[in-house]
Amino acid sequence: QNSMVLSAAIFITLIGLIVYLHFVKIDQESLLVIGSLGIQVTSSYASGKESTTFIEMGQVKDVVINEAIHMQKVIYYLCILLQDPEDPQGVSEVVPLFQSSKPRLDCLIEVYKSCQEILEQRKTVPQSS
Fold first, then answer.
1. pLDDT for 68-112, tens place per residue?
2. Is 29 within a domain?
3. Could you give the 3-state DSSP secondary structure of residue 52?
4. How many domains does the chain have?
5. Inside any domain, residue 71
6. Cα dist. 125→49, 62, 63, 64 in Å?
7. Percent of the chain's residues with pLDDT above 90
8. Phi/psi class of residue 102: alpha, beta or left (left: φ > 0; alpha: ψ in -120 to 50)?
9. Which site in 1, 15, 26, 114 is 20 to 30 Å from 48, CA atoms measured?
10. In a domain, 129, yes or no
11. Is 109 within the bounds of a domain?
12. Which residues form the domain of 13?
């Protein structure tokens, strides 16, 4: 009886660990910005699974560093502001980046500057229809 309960507990723990590694534990996050196409956000999980999201450059209004207060400390994170299709001056959605890795502010500033350079190039180059 006790060995059966112990076996079931070990089995459930192993299943929980596999689910955690496959769906929750993110090892690496990357951001690829191509001015003429868009922004690709990739998350690599501990199990080897990858999740990729692509945002067309036409939807991107801006990239900003946002701050939040969490557990009595200020944390910074990079966000993509998506343009509202009905109101060109408005923002329809805020997409946070690097939520699992939580890089330091100085790292975020470097990524922010690179993103802004690409966004500025896109604004200065006339777009062909």
1. 898 888 899 999 999 988 887 888 899 999 988 889 999 999 999
2. yes
3. strand
4. 1
5. yes
6. 37, 17, 18, 22
7. 47
8. left
9. 114
10. no
11. yes
12. 1-124
